Amino acid sequence: SDVAFGAVRLVLFFSDDADSPLEVEAEARRLLAEACRRKGDLDASMRELERVVKLCQGSEQLGLRRLALVDAVETAWEARRLEIAQRLLPDALAVTRGADDDALTRLLLLGASVANLRGDGAAARTYLEEADALRARRPSSDRSPTGEVLRVACGRSVTSVDPAGMRAELE
Asked: Which pTM value belongs to this model?
């Protein structure tokens, strides 16, 4: 992974050139953000994703901006930064509507969770209703009950995936 970081940093070094296309730097920063996220450095990932969003603002790179916003909201959620997720969610929803129903559904469900945790039941209900309407429009062959991913944050490292071998220590 250090080699990947070095390669992306090299691309960023050469993209500082004035003649370099904006999308090269934006895509390199998005890859760096994903590498940071996978490494567990969620703060660095958020910084890079917010740079990508700023770089793509006002440019024709709507697809790249959409990917960066979706990743930023999901990373903010993983990092338990509800205020950042709540701030980025409206922009992410706006650029995702009509472009990617799967990402929109994920964002709506995440938005419902954030709104619910913030005590805004009406907004949570609105997000859930829209997500349900999107799911209902999908063909039945696309609605697989095993196709979802459950992510759970653990405060301690998990030593066993077998439920019988797990041990929880409460402080």
From this structure: 0.71
Q: Sign of torsion, CA 80 82 83 86? A: positive
**Of residues 16, 51, 18, the one with CA closest to residue 32:** 51
- What's the CA gap between 53 and 49, in Å, rounded? 6
Give per-residue burial for 84-97: e unless 16+ CB within 10 Å, then b. Answer: bbbebbebbbebbe
Task: Return the amino acid letter for 13.
Answer: F
Angle at 97 between CA 94 and CA 100, to 5 degrees: 130
- 165 is written with which tokens? 């071998």
Question: How confident is the prediction along the chain (171 residues), in pLDDT tens digits per residue?
Answer: 577 667 777 776 666 665 667 777 788 888 888 888 888 889 988 998 888 888 888 777 778 888 888 999 999 998 899 899 999 999 899 888 887 778 888 899 999 999 998 888 899 999 999 988 888 887 665 545 556 676 666 666 666 666 666 666 655
